[in-house]
Each structure stands twice: as C-alpha cells, then as structure tokens.
Here is the input.
Amino acid sequence: MEPRRPRVETLADRVKRYGFALKQAVSPMPSDPTEIPQFFDSLEAMFRSFEIQADLRAKLLLPFLSLKAKLLISRLNDEELEDYEGVRDFLLSEFKLTPTGYKARFDNAKQSVPMKHSFILLRGSEIIYDIICVAGIVWTILTVCFLF
Here is the structure.
C-alpha cells in the first residue's frame, strides 16, 4: 500500500474548511442596519477563535452578507474585495453607520410602540455606545457631550 501523500493546502481548500466551520457558528447579516456593528464584532470574534488568516477573512465574509450588502459590494473592484477591513468599513459607511449617521438616527428616533422611560433611556445609551465603538477612537466626556 502506498503511503498517503500530504495534500497541498490550496486557497480553495482553506476557504472551504474555514467556511464550513463558520457556517456552524455565525448568523447571517441582519437586515436591521443598527445591528450590523454587532454582526461584525461577532464575526471578528469567530475569526480570532478559529485563528483565520487575514487573507481569507474577506472571502469568508461574503456568504454571510445580506442581499443589500452584496449589491453594495458589487461596486468594489477585485483588489478592494480582498481587504476585509476595507469591505467592512465600506459597508458601515454605506449603511450610514458612522458617528454622524448615529447622531442623525438618535435625533430622529421616535417611539414606535409605547415604551417605558427606562427602556427609552437604555435604547439611547445603546446608540451612544455604538457611536463610540464604531468610531474606533477614544472619546472624552466633552466630545460625547459636544455631539448633543
């Protein structure tokens, strides 16, 4: 019997192996734009957990994107599609998930169903937290107060 030869790890093999593992652990991108930053946070946590190399991340992101996100990234060229951080930042900016976009949402927020005041405050604090996290910078109290 001939000894088994080690299989060469091609890009397709690595994408298939990691893609299968991620499909078991990651949910598809939500349709609500305010939940997209949490989607990317959980996806990046899975990338770290499975020790996925940077060159595979953008390729592995594609199956989890919503239809609208897939239509948006169709405008990117091949080189831009290779960069996970670039694709993520592009989608966040297109969905207007920037500090300015969150500020506009906060200002225009309306109560859709009767809510208690404590729930409204909690929801507002979640929006402020998202503003701070999406910006990716350290904010001072003065900067946050300046937004309002």
